[in-house]
Every structure is written in C-alpha cells, then in structure tokens.
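hey so i finally got around to running the thing on that chain from the lab meeting. sorry it took forever, my laptop kept dying and i had to restart like 3 times. anyway pasting the input first so we r on the same page abt which one it is
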Amino acid sequence: MITLPPDLRSGKHKLSSMYSVEKLTELYEQNFPAEIFTGEPQGLYDPVKHIMSMGGKRIRPLLCLMSADMFGKNPLDALHPAFGVEVFHNFTLVHDDIMDNADIRRGQPAVHALYGLNKGILSGDVMFAYAYKHVSMVPPAILADVFGVFNKTAIEIFEGQQSDMDFETRNDVQESEYLKMIEFKTSVLLGCALKMGAIIGGASEADRDAAYRFGINLGLSFQIKDDFLDTFGEAAKVGKRIGGDILNNKKTYLYIKTFEMAAAGDKEVLTAMLGEKDEEKKIATVKGIMESSGAKKNTEEKIEVLYREALRNLDEISVPEEQKKPLRELAERINNRDY
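ok and heres what got predicted. didnt touch it at all, straight out
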C-alpha cells in the first residue's frame, strides 16, 4: 500500500507545485523501507535487507520521481519503477563487490563478506527479479516503452562491467574506451531513470531524449567524481578504503590521464606499480604521480565540463524553468559532493 503525503491524497497534481528533493526522498523512504524484504527463506532475504538498509544517495529513484514530476505527472505513479531502478542498482553493487573482492560497502561489510559468496550471488539474483517486478508496475499503454529502456540499460550495464574487468589487465586503455565503459556501467542507469520518469509523465520523444542525455552526462561526471574520491577523498566520508581503485589496477579516467601526462620515467614507475604487493607503497606512489603529472587537476576540470554539458541538456527540455528547478538543484548537490 502506497503511503500518501497530505498534498497528494486528493489525487490532484499541479504543475505549479513541484516537489523538493527532500519531499520526494521522504515519499520514497516511507513506501520502500529495507524492511519490506522479509519472508522465507530468511537466508535469501536478510542479505537483501542488509544492502538496501545501507542508505546510499538514492539518486536513481529520485531522478525517476523528479522526471515524472517535472512533466506534470503525480510522482506516485513513478514510485514502483523508481524502486525497481534502485533495487537493480543495488543488485549490481552486490555482484560488483564479489567480482572486485571488496569487503566494505558504504562503511559496512559487503553482502558476500557478511553472508558468504553463495548467498551474495543468490541474493543479487532475487534483487534482479524484484527490480523487473516493480519496473513493470506501470500502465499497459506505456509498458513496452518503459521495458524497452530498462532492458537496453540492463544489457549495457553488464557490458560495461565486463569492459571494466577487462581493463584491469591492460595498460593501453584509451580515454574514449573508458568514457564508453562508464557510460554503460553507470550513466545509462541515470539516463534510464530519467527517461522512464519522462515516459510516465507523458513527455514528447524530444523531451524524453533530452532527459536521457542529461542523465548520461550527469552520470559521466558522477562516475569520474566517484573515481576521483576513491583516490583523493576521505575514507570516513566516502565509506570505503581510499586507494581501492589503485590496488585493483582500475583504469579510471584519473589513471588514464596520469599515464598519458606523466614523464617517461614516471610511466615506467606506474607500470611497475601494477604488480606491487606493498599496498601502502603502491597507493602513495601512484597518488604522487597523479598529482605531479597534472592529471589530478585535469580530472577535476573534466568533471566540471561534463556537469556543464548535463545542465545544457536540461536547458533543452521544453518545460518552464520552474519545473526543472528540483533537478537542477539535485545535479548541483551531486556535483559538489565530497562522499
């Protein structure tokens, strides 16, 4: 049963009353607390409850709700697809942590570290099914459009994850390859959330596409910022060990630019560090070259360029500026975050 805030109980929704990030977050959390994952066997659902109770930024469901709201649709109509997107996102995190052998997620034990590898795999699988269940809870007239976007996105995310793993054993990854990989692994789900919300909101094809492009560029900026914070953030804020990408030989934008911009001698050091077993030495050495080469500054500039492009995409959407304001504010929060 969906919990209605007072201003939505009447069933009326006015374009003049766009909902804030805080309001939509409250609406989402009221209706989809982690505790909804109960049932038997408990060994299947406890790991799901664990990952879903960690919180997180809730960016993807918010984008879906805000997109529907922007186009004048009652955000209640997008609640189930928004939840489906968030469950799908968390499913990918469960399996990513297994593949990356990462034991910490959001400052807490990863699912597989707490419950074991087999339960980690199976709980991820059931989350995948729940994601589709909730995404399908839209009117029949738009189901094919919504599923078309979601299915395409799911396939691209899996392709992006494989590329990410392939890159770990390569030292010749190009910037264009990396950007395509993170577009698939991260950006497309943000674009999907926005486009599904736009479909639910009855937006034109042009506006659906503009909303999707906004999500793509915001997602690219978001992921490069995430990679940046993995290396130059604070562990207490980021919720995981700083330098994990360096230890896993991840070919992030930051690393690629470092290898591109570093002096010849430093490139030899970077190559040698791929096999370095002393973790602290590896992190410190690579971070030092990232700074001295200018790659750190270059990466910060790239994040800002992509963020500005996302705002231009938002400008292209043909609704009054007031209706875009909540999305613009959320994009600013994402860009300015330090976690």
